[in-house]
Amino acid sequence: MHLLDLPVDLLQLAADFLDAEKDINSFAQINRQSYSVLNPYLYRRNSLKLGSSALLWAAQRGSGGTARACLSEGADVAAFDKFGRTPLFLAASKGSEEVVKVLLATRQVDANSKDCFGCTPLTGAASYGHEAVVRLLLATATVDADWKDNFGFTPLNYAASWGHKAVVRLLVATGKVDADLKDNYDCTPLSIAVSKGDKAVVTLLSATRRFDMDSTDLL
After folding, report:
1. For residues 121 and 133, what is the distance between their CA atoms, to the nearest angstrom?
2. Could you tell me which of 203, 186, 182 has the C-alpha nearest to residue 194?
3. CB 202: neighbour CB atoms within 10 A?
4. For 32-107, where are the alpha helices, taking DSSP H only?
5. Contacts for 25 with CB less than 8 Å, ≥ 6 apart
6. Contact 167/129 with Cβ under 8 angstroms?
7. Is the dihedral of CA 52, 140, 160, 182 positive or negative?
8. Which of 107, 135, 170, 209 is 20 to 30 Å from 36 at the Cα level?
9. Which PROSITE patterns does this chain map to (predicted)?
């Protein structure tokens, strides 16, 4: 009897004796039959034994197809890497609209998950100016648009610092961000924009500012 003529459960048992994922993947690539049997098994094994690392990989590289395959075989949407970054955080930071949509569609992700620096997926997306992803996250009812990380920086701080005007506009439009909220260094999103000489961002933030007559951070 040829190896590939074995029942599915025996093929999977044989694959389980292979230590490395790359070896199982090579086994799966032999032909269509082995692929159809072992590829789902490979994702399931990754979810159970390797901390859903394949989903983290897919999120970081913007691979929607791989993300879906991982989720269909039980990958943990709350998995995280050594820096505490979840799949949603990685996908948001990379600007992968497709993977963010896939993850949000599970209705099981924490939109406010924090990495080791206290940053959320929205923080990551805002930092890199990923407008489409910021829009998706802001549409999530539970997202905290004005969350402070370990440095006291909010998504608005980062967007203002890097001159991401479109993201600043989206954040301001929520009515849930404070342009005068001070970070750990007594700077505000507005004062940062002023120091950068970014007139467009200053104009956007000034329209929402709650004027504090005793504030000196703009001097």
Report:
1. 9
2. 203
3. 23
4. 32-49, 53-61, 64-72, 87-94, 97-105
5. 42
6. yes
7. negative
8. 107
9. ANK_REP_REGION (PS50297), ANK_REPEAT (PS50088)
Instruction: Give the residue carrying structure tokens 């590829």.
Output: 39
* Nearest of 53, 49, 23, 50 to residue 38 by alpha carbon: 23
CB burial class (10 A; 0-12, 13-18, 19+) of residue 169?
Answer: middle
Dist. CA 186–CA 184, nearest whole Å: 6
Q: Which residue has the tokens 């590289």?
A: 61
Q: How many Cβ atoms sit within 10 Å of the Cβ of residue 84?
A: 14
C-alpha span between 194 and 146 (Å, rounded): 20
Q: Of 37, 57, 32, nearest to 47 (Cα)?
A: 57
> Terminal CA-to-CA distance of the chain, rounded, Å?
83
pLDDT truncated to tens, each residue of the chain (219 aa)?
444 454 445 445 444 544 555 555 554 555 455 545 556 778 888 888 889 999 999 999 999 999 999 999 999 999 999 999 999 999 999 999 999 999 999 999 999 999 999 999 999 999 999 999 999 999 999 999 999 999 999 999 999 999 999 999 999 999 999 989 999 999 999 999 999 999 999 999 988 765 443 455 554
For the question of whether the overall pTM of this predicted structure is more than 0.90, the answer is: no
The tokens for 89 are 């955080």
Q: Are 167 and 159 in contact (CB under 8 A)?
A: yes
